[in-house]
Amino acid sequence: MTPKLQRILIVHEKPSLLESLRSQFSFGECEIHSASNWTQCAALCADKDFDLVLLSSSITDFPPELLAFHINNHVREGKKPLRFVLCGEPLTLCAQKGVSPFGIVSQLPMRAFENGLDKALDECLLTDIPQLDPQCTLFRTISRSCVAINQSLRMKGKFSGDIQNLRHEQKELLYSLEFLRHKVDECSAATVSTIVMAAEARDPYMRSHIKLVARLSFEIAKRIGLSGSKLENITKAARLHDIGKIGIPDEILNKRGALTFEQHKVIRAHPVIGKKILEKNPAFHTYIDVVLYHHERLDGTGYPEGRRGSDIPFEALIVAVADIVSALTTDRPYRASVKPADALDIIHPQKGIKLMADAVDAVADFIQNSDGRDKPSVFRSHDVTLPHFLRL
Q: Are 45 and 82 in contact (CB under 8 A)?
């Protein structure tokens, strides 16, 4: 059952629009407060608990994404965190990179205000408030940025007569946020690499397998029509697809003979283990579906949940094909590898039954018509012509 809205705060820089927005809400006895700048917002949030804070992207003096973090982790330190909803277009890379590390539960376009917000806000009430571990580097980096912006804005208030300087400082703050976004990405990429290296250290086979699955996933996704951030995300997810094998005992992971029934059960737990490793960090939530479901099959014979057809995430179906081709074309302690062409012969009967047809066709095109023809396990991942996220 959806909780009832009792108190909300609307934050927008234009007082006239605030009044217009207030008049559009029909939440019965819901108590509606408004603020037109970041200082009013912070003061209200310090004193009151709100079910939702609708934070307009027009609040550009204190960038709204960081304002949410600042209020929950500084202004309200030790108190119950608030749910922030970013309204309007994000200022920088939010739309592409996600806003969860900054404490925002959802993002709503301004047109949502014209079409009725009841349903959208109900969903926001049910969303967990994303929180970063105060001990992690990313938390400390964002926290220091918030403190610096707060100090700068307070100094700006003392010299508000020079409008041109104010505008310049405002631009500098936005550039600072952009720089912070890149630092967030760098931290996430470094963490991914660290996790992958930990997996590789457990099993020498893992390094070549991870590289090959990432490259094949990239080639399949590109041929299917994915591009930009979607192509990058599925490639990064492919790098992490077997991360759960960190939790599998060596005597099972590297066993030369056939596995017993009980050992198969242990191996099949690695997608769930991988999910538990990644779900603690909001920066990795984008990759969890691939990690958890890359062993599911269209006909329901996969694991860990036995999902069928459209219930399996599209990205996981792509990585599933890449994973099988990599496994078949790589030597393992319990069997020899096969040639790429033979791998295609093995997976072709499963096309459209267990494996996504488009993904099978795409990997066939790559192997038959590219440098994957002879031995795809020797891809030159350092090749400067490859995207940066494939130079493993």
A: yes
